[in-house]
Please model this.
Amino acid sequence: MSLHPAPQEQDLDGLAAFLKAAGDPLRLEVLQVLGQNSFGVLELCEIMAIKQSGMSHHLKVLAQGGLVERRREGNSIFYRRRLPPSDAATGPLQGALFERLDATQADPVTRQRLAGVQAQRAAQSRAFFARHADDLARHQDLIAEHDQYAEQACELLDRAGGNNGIALEIGPGEGRFLAPLASRFERVLALDNAEVMLARARERVAGQGLDNVELVLGEWPEHGALLPRVDAVVVNMVLHHLPSPSAALEAAARQLNEGGVLVITDLCRHNQRWAVDACGDFWLGFEEADLVSWAGRAGLVLRESLFLAMRNGFQVQVRSFQRVTAHPSKREQSGNE
Model:
């Protein structure tokens, strides 16, 4: 007599765990919040206004139901929504649940607390760049050499037809990618939240005579509403510094004209935690499916992907996405006023 449960029994057990996990309003709200980003237990406690013991219990139930998973970033543990395996019996239910949660607006008080947590993360990032501006380029070159991935980013940009109109670079740092953009576009906007980095980019722009480049101080995505629609958005080695990568991609999609292209270079998932202290990385890279999933939810279609082996065991992914024609009602909702 077999001691292992039959496949049908396993399916029913998994379905029961899934339904239990999804059958609680607070747990559904947690899943809604995790659709925006990965969060630690204490951050979720702050967002949901619940004690740690209660939040830990709810996260355990969600994990047992296959709805969330844990991942380590530096010295911290973060929770994220778990994509269902393709052969999971609960896969269609889980996909429909996440889609419904993403289409439902969160409670205003919860949104306010969520914005507060993300603002704290952004403040930490600004403080790091202010303290380490002199050493940052040297430390980053230990991970990925700019010229190598920049060449590939230009190639994907050219093949997508993104070589005219207006371009926006988010997080230009010292401005090393501004010259390639300036040679391809009539106008280039560069948005950074660190004045010390913009000062260095300003020197580079003046020294190279890039008179079609405009440097802007501000946070992304909050500052996006003050900028015009653009034909290309470039995000080079920036997402792993941002408090909410998924929100950053959604905002980039809103900023693009129809048919516009988004080019991203960033680290593949890794476990080298020294990068957190040396370079101010918030995330230890991203799984390949992360960027595709976030971009897809924002209405962007993957065009091309390149993967580059870098020094010290790092790997960089270079991806291009295109904004597809939106349904009229969705286009009205997503446009900048």
Q: What stands out?
A: The first helix runs from residue 7 to 22. Confidence is low (pLDDT under 50) at residues 327-337. Residues 7-106 form a domain with the Arc Repressor Mutant, subunit A fold (CATH 1.10.10.10).
